[in-house]
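Give me the fold.
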Amino acid sequence: MTMFGYRATDAAGKVSEGVLDAPEERSARDRLREMGRIPIRVWEASAPGRAPAASPSFAFSGRSLRKDVLPFLQGLKTFLAAGVPLDRSLEMLAGLFRGRPMGNVAASLLADVRGGNSLADAMRRAPGAPFHRFTVQMVTAGQATGSLSEALDQVHDFLTRSRDFRSTVLGSLMYPAILLGASVVSVAVLVVFVVPRFAGVFRTSGVLLPLPTRALLFFSTFLRQYGLLVLGAAALAGYLARAALRSRETRLSFDRSKLRWPWIGGILAAVETSRVARSLASLLSGGVPILSAFVIAREVSGNASFREGMEAARGKVQGGVKLARALSETTPFPETAIRMIAVGEETGRLEAMLASVADAYEETARRGLRDFLVLLEPAVILLMGLLVGFVVFSIFLAIFRLNEVPF
């Protein structure tokens, strides 16, 4: 017998963890179901709570796996919608992705499915862990309701929207980031390499230099002497900040404060609201119970304040409180989103209203980001111009002062 650790939910949605003995992982999952629990994750463990180690053969291929997940799901749902049996679909996908990491994943899924395991269980323990829990739970619900193709379609739509929105954000920030980087490098080159060429002339003249020139020379000397120390201190500060953010309390406090930042806070709140609402809409429409959907949707958020609030809201919903009220009391969801969810509950169209909330706040985030960049780009250009202008002005001011010296 082997010791297996597990994380599971019961019929009421309560999450529990523990260990049990079983000859294999499939038997462990069967035992959990006999106990009235829905397995979330099961792993072989020599000690309680020990998580499964990552497969070393796939450690280098995480980016390739993530890149291929969407095409893989697209192909799988297309084959299933066309009436191709699941095992044959996986076999064809293994051939299509041959020579790539996802081809090995497809072969692993095929072996598990032909061995009698469900697709969801096979995805859960696929090498390289390419499938998010959201995907696994949607597939579980789709298999339970006989609508696997529709569930995969919802998963593909969710992941596609998430990818496209992320690409939009990163693409929008690329130009200001390059512009800011070029500004910093340009000023650094001027101060560290150009200004010192004039410094010797200014010092030998014996003339009292203007205040801007003296400040520039002091800054240039400081950077040349202590520049590496400044970079080291900045790197150390960044490392200590990241280490501090690993603390749950620090991360929660920081993420809450981010939502109150001018301009940025509203955009971040809209992004997280859209993510959580869309995941809830997809999970609920896919047949996942609401309490289990809360457990999965909270992990979609990248903000600890939203995650903590979703966990607290799940407890309230479990206690009989309506969804809109639970979210309003525990999460940073905007008031408009709460009202829309309340209307969805009252009209019996909760899933559709959650999807509408997601669409509305995704557009709000896009519009807020666009407006922010409209101000950021000229601000960066103006800052660059002021810094370069200050350097040039300080040098010419000193040159004018030297010209006033009688020979």
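Residues 148-205 form the longest helix (58 residues).
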